[in-house]
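Query structure, 120 tokens:
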């Protein structure tokens, strides 16, 4: 199965209130490490080990300091299209966290717009 398809299957299996997850990506061919790194810079992947040729990817659902899920999916699709074979493993998942937004001083219209946007 392709990396992008694995990622999409993983995201589809999660509950709707997941907030962020941590993935580990390992590539099988050492010769393709630099090629994969060129794609992974888009999602700010962090190298975990130069001996085993793998990265940590942080993914955010609706908010947070991580790469958005659609961007990670697109990046993995590019890696698949480049013919780089790898394995994706879920290392950590956080669910049920709520975004905290400072609303002091904002007009009521901004508060209503925010509530409506987050209710979807």
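Result returned for the query:
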């Amino acid at each position: 199965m392709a990396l992008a398809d694995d990622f999409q299957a993983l995201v589809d299996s999660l509950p709707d209130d997941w907030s962020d997850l941590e993935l580990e990506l390992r590539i099988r061919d050492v010769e393709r490490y630099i090629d994969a790194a060129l794609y992974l810079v888009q999602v700010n992947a962090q190298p975990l080990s130069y001996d085993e040729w793998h990265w940590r990817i942080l993914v955010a659902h609706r908010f947070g300091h991580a790469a958005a899920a659609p961007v990670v999916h697109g990046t993995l699709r590019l890696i698949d299209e480049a013919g780089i074979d790898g394995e994706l493993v879920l290392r950590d998942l956080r669910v049920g966290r709520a975004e905290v937004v400072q609303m002091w001083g904002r007009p009521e219209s901004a508060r209503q717009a925010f509530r409506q946007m987050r209710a979807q």
